[in-house]
Amino acid sequence: MTKPSIKILTLLAALAMLLPLPVMQYVAEESYYALGAYEIFVDEHWWHQSVFGLTWPKTPLYNWLVIGVAQVIGWQHLEIATRIVSVSASWGSAAVVFFMARRFFPMHSNASWLGALIYLSMGEISFWYGWLGYADATFGFFIFSAIASLWVAIEDKQIKWLLISLFLITLAFFTKNISCYVMYFSAALILLWRCNRWQLLINPIYIIPVFISLTMPWIYQQFLLNGGTNSRVAIGDALRNFLGYGLFDYIFHWISYPVLFLARAFPLTLILIWLYVKEHQRYEFDKTLLSLTYILVLCLLPFWLSATGTPRYLIPFYGLLALLLTGLALQLNIKQTSLILKVMLFVILIKIPYSFAILPYIKDWRPERSIVAVVDDIMQHSSGTNLRTLHDVSTGLSIGAYINVRTPHDHYVRWYDGKEKQVYILSEVEDNKLGKLVKYYHIQGQHAYLYWRP
To answer: What does the alpha-carbon distance between residue 392 and residue 414 come to, in Å, rounded to a whole number?
Structure first.
């Protein structure tokens, strides 16, 4: 297939990322990030998040980006704003793949567009976390672009690219948490080894900027964060993936996690494996492909060694995997290349019914799935300005996010303090002490009780 054809497929894959954005209600914890952005904007506590008025020590960069988009398209489209930021980050990661593929495979004129196409057609990116309104796609973009810049800095010994890399990894920290540094320095160790650049570790021109960059988490927590410690939260979240599990949980995770990583990067991963098994296709790993493999394994190791872990943790690694897959795909013959492009075209086309029918049916259209209908009913009882909540699971967060954009900014839904009266209270559990039960809702497998506190 010609370069113009690959370019068209890549652009189609990029546009297909937008398809689910206006169709879906809030999915899972998207509303958590929407609430965080809304409350940062309203209360002007720009350096930390809050949810229902309760301070949560999470870094705010993703929320700032959401605020910027919401200001342009309107706060009534807040769920779309969160997703536009994620899609933009996925496009950014595809652009990094594009430029790194050009660097790694200069003898192949199609390498850049093929690499971007591989990334954008990955199942995890195209069908789920690449467009969902979570911070992970943005977090992954900054980590991947930081590692890519670091690669150029170390291989070419260029300080300007090191400074760009450190700036990007700092943005990754401000997007989510300090786990980005584990991935970043794991990649740095591999690159120093593979490029034989250990002398850079004793060069003050390189080391001083690194140490200055590492002070940013400390500065943030000591001088900018109002209440709580971001690092403590991140470490606590990480430890929960190790503690309280039995041996079989660990063994199952060790076996399943790499399979999950490759499976959710379909279709190309599965096709390359199929070609290896059925057609005895053999792949050569040159220095670049080996380096990519080593970085992926070492970066994955902390997540792999745990007893559990959500697929969201894998998002920062799909850009590196796309480059590795590009190098392998370039070794295929014309017939095999034609096959993978046809399959990727099929994946892009499947995104249309998936976005407009399959996913909405699974998430929104099935009975007792409509969060918006519950919000409409609650608004008939309450003006929204006198609603408080004790419901902090996904549906409760979504209800709060939808109600907030329908009411004045200074009357957003807050956590019930146990003292206020003349308010409606939304609770996750039945509790007659809260007042008179007005309505019970069963939504998406969860419970919601609306009480009136006289």
So the answer is: 11
308: left (phi over 0), alpha (psi -120 to 50) or beta: beta
DSSP category for residue 51: E
Question: Is residue 265 a contact partner of residue 347, using CB atoms and an 8 Å limit?
Answer: no
Q: What are phi and psi of 430, to 5 degrees?
A: -75, 125
Q: What is the DSSP string of 409-423?
A: GGG--EE--S---SE
Yes or no: say if 34 and 144 are a contact pair by the CB < 8 Å rule: no
CA distance 312 to 240: 15
Rounded Cα gap, residues 147 and 142, in angstroms: 9
**Runs of H (alpha helix) within 74-178:** 78-104, 111-121, 123, 136-156, 159-175
| Two structure tokens written together for 451 | 């009480």
Q: What is the CA radius of gyration of the chain?
A: 24
Q: Helices 287-304 and 179-194: crossing angle, nearest 10°?
A: 150
Annotated domain spans of the chain: 3-357, 371-453
Short-list 404, 401, 406, 411, CA closest to 31 = 401
Q: Which of 344, 317, 271 is nearest to 114 (CA)?
A: 344
Strands (E), 369-412: 387-390
User: Element (H or E) spanning 55, and its range?
Assistant: strand 54-56
What span, in angstroms and rounded, lies between the C-alpha atoms of 29 and 134?
7
Report residue 84 as tokens. Answer: 């536009």
Q: Which amino acid is at 88?
A: S
Q: Is 289 helix (H, G, I), strand (E, B) or coil?
A: helix
Other beta carbons less than 10 A from residue 121's beta carbon: 30
Q: Are 242 and 187 in contact (CB under 8 A)?
A: no
10-residue averages of pLDDT along the chain (454 residues): 79 95 92 95 90 88 97 95 98 98 93 96 95 96 98 95 97 92 95 94 93 89 67 63 76 87 93 92 94 95 82 92 96 93 94 93 81 91 85 92 90 90 93 92 91 92
- Residue 19 DSSP one-character state: T
Do 95 and 116 meet the contact criterion of CB atoms below 8 Å apart?
yes
Residue carrying structure tokens 């004129």: 109
**Which residues, other chains included, contact 106 with Cβ-Cβ below 8 Å and sequence gap of 6+?**
none
* Encoded tokens for 295: 């970085």
Strands (E), 337-445: 387-390, 414-415, 423-427, 436-443
Put the strands of the sheet holding 414-415 in their side by side order: 414-415, 387-390, 423-427, 446-453, 436-443
Beta bridge partners of 443: 446
450 bridge partner residues: 426, 439
